Amino acid sequence: MEVTDNNYNKLVLDEERAIFIDFYSPSCGPCQELKKMIKDDFEEYAKNNNVLVLTCDISRNQKLAEKFKIRSVPFTIMVTKDKKFKDPQMGLQDPYYYYNLIEKYNGKKKSLLKKIFF
Q: 39 near 4, Cβ under 8 Å?
């Protein structure tokens, strides 16, 4: 789901779940790779773990780009249930980095992925 300057308050501030936000630019190669990763695998995993996934095109949403002081993309951040911003990250990461973020903020004590790998 796309977050914009206009719907940010409704989508983010009114949401009760933790939120993963991916800030991207359409002309950025690594951004497109992350967007595909999110669509193909990560979004469904997050949904199953009660975490909302949002994307934001910074070329169309300058207010949000300024709010988060984005200087490079892809840029990802987690918004906790209590609306604190955590784990800001610039650049494309290994897929397991994103899965671990979901594990960290899904509100469960210990999920299956952690039981298996940690």
A: no
Beta-carbon contacts of 5 under 8 Å, excluding residues fewer than 6 positions away, are: 61, 62, 63, 64
41-58 pLDDT per residue, tens: 899 999 999 999 999 999
The reported pLDDT for the residue numbered 116 is 57
Structural tokens at position 102: 């979901």
Query: What's the number of CA atoms in the CB half-sphere (13 Å) around residue 110?
Result: 5
Residue indicated by tokens 């650049």: 91
Give the up-direction half-sphere exposure of residue 26: CA atoms within 13 A in the CB hemisphere. 4
Homologous superfamily, domain 8-117? Glutaredoxin (3.40.30.10)
Stated pTM of the model: 0.88
